[in-house]
Amino acid sequence: MYNNFSNVIKSLYKTYNFNFLSKKISRGDQMKDKFLKDQQRKLAIGSIDRRQFISSAVAAGVVLPTAMTMATQALAAPSRGGHMKVALGHGSTTDTLDPATFENGWSNAVGYMIRNHLTEVGPDGQLRGELAESYETSDGQTWIFHLRKGVEFHNGKSLTPEDVIASMQHHMGEDSQSAAKGLLTAVESISKEGSNSVKMVLNSANADFPFIVSDYHLAICPETGGKINPSDGIGTGYMTLDRFDAGVVATGTRYANWWKPEGYFDSGEILSIIDPTARNTAVMNGDVHVIDRVPANTVALMSKNPNLQIQQVTGTLHYTFPMRLNVEPFDNYNLRMALKLAIKRQELVDKILLGYGGLGNDHPISTANRFHASELPQREFDPEGAAEHYKKSGHSGTIQLSASDAAFAGAVDAAQLIANSAKECGIDIEVVREPKDGYWSNVWNLKGWSACYWGGRPTEDWMFSAAYTNDTEWNDTAWKGTESSKRFNELVIAARAELDDAKRREMYVECQTLINDDGGTICPMFANYINAMDKSVSFPDQTAANWNLDGGKMMERWWFS
Q1: How far does CA 532 lie from the centroid of its chain?
Q2: DSSP of 3-35, one letter per residue?
Q3: Residue 68 lies in a domain
Q4: Which residues fall within 8 angstroms of residue 87, CB to CB, at 6 or more apart?
Q5: What tens-digit pLDDT sequence spans the chain (561 residues)?
Q6: 494 and 533: one domain?
Q7: In a domain, 27, yes or no
């Protein structure tokens, strides 16, 4: 599968996993629209010419005059040039260039600017090859990734299978401290296959594995002597790294031998501005072109600025308050349940998100995910139930909840609302306001109860493997020692290899149920991505939602109009 076809039309439909024999005809118009938009994008950037576009559009069922008009519209944009400045509400002075350590949106964006991965999530939400031109499997257990030819690192070195092998091994092994270690524990071996391919053999079948290797940690770096040097900032990405001040600013310049047809800016700058007021001011004054994490309570004001546009994207972003089971008193099931029942979730959505989001149900799988457990009853505020479980826990005294707006805009206010509703249940919560700088290294994943955010993942297995299985470094609830957690880990492994969708759904619903009941995650709300940008900034009609700002790839996919 994923082989290239000689026929252009068939090839592009295959890219979108479109198959008339296997898909419902009702999806035809939707997939046709995606196909045509992709063709327009390729025409605009010079990947195909006007004649090729018109031919493919007519073959897809568009009448000739309409196809010609569509070609004219596509050729009107985008334009090349300019210096793009982006300010993000993430970043820490502890950030590094090693993708194994990436832990926030700022470092992720820097990584996407300078490096690439074997696969990527496209603007349409579908997986596609990146450094891997194609990939295949016969059993879901052995995967072959065929690398693109002509791809060059910023130091002039050509991409080889050895680079991929060394980059993956950087995250593997017992001694690895990589946040992506858990994603690759299933890889039993990785080796060169032929002259330009890499073979990865898993300990069991995993139909979602090509999604896994698109993870932002698993960037491909140049190999020397069987090892990579991730601190040198060298990659195959759109821009070469000019400056890197951890948690402050990173700048880059378009690489002359950049291998993709996309890429429009001459240079770029990614700043860390944690304070939301300062970030808003920066884009309103024209100091930057784009900001993320616009506080919901400022959207109305920002919308009135004639020079700005607001972008909202619904994805898998969710806000959590993880309780670590290895820290007292959160090792107590009844205490955890008491806190889960003591939260007014709708109040948080209304007052913190101002309606720009939806309810969470104490697990990380959103309604956008394929196997979302819609049948799981929504947890609601239950003061009597909370009080009963709190009494059973035997706990007394104050419970500390650490929060900082470094976690998400309004995190401290959200923590205070939780404390207020818990008080109605007879539970005393002390909100500890933590410093923004160093929050991710000094508070999150260390203190017993804290505020956090997760961008989510395109697949259930990926999300669970990133933050909930017992072998991942980012299991921020330390949910490992209970019978439910053991059952959960068994289910995750079994679901990976299950090819029957009905059975797979049953497993993932049970996984969500186990986290909801026994896990240490309090997930009260899913939030929309809200961005503000200068009206000179243009982007495709459809942008990726796996991460904010077009999957973190705004530097290579967007342009100035």
Answers
A1: 19
A2: PPPSSHHHHHHHHTT--TTTS-GGGHHHHHHHH
A3: yes
A4: 271, 272, 273, 279, 282, 283, 287, 288, 290, 291, 292
A5: 333 333 333 333 333 333 323 333 345 666 777 688 778 767 765 678 888 889 888 988 888 878 887 787 666 557 889 999 999 999 999 999 999 999 899 999 999 999 999 999 998 888 999 999 999 999 889 999 999 999 999 999 999 999 999 999 999 988 898 999 988 988 999 999 999 999 999 998 998 899 999 999 999 999 999 999 999 999 999 999 999 999 999 999 999 999 999 999 999 999 999 999 999 999 999 999 999 999 998 999 999 999 999 998 877 899 999 999 999 999 999 999 999 999 999 999 999 999 999 999 999 999 878 899 999 999 999 999 999 999 999 999 999 999 999 999 899 999 999 999 999 999 999 999 999 999 999 999 999 999 999 988 888 998 998 899 998 888 999 999 999 999 999 999 999 888 788 999 999 999 999 999 999 999 999 999 999 999 999 998 889 888 899 999 999 999 998
A6: no
A7: yes
Asked if residue 84 belongs to a domain, the reply is no
Among 204, 232, 260, give the residue marking a domain's end.
Answer: 232
**Do 523 and 541 lie in a common domain?**
no
State pTM to two decimals.
Answer: 0.71
130 lies in the same domain as 172: yes
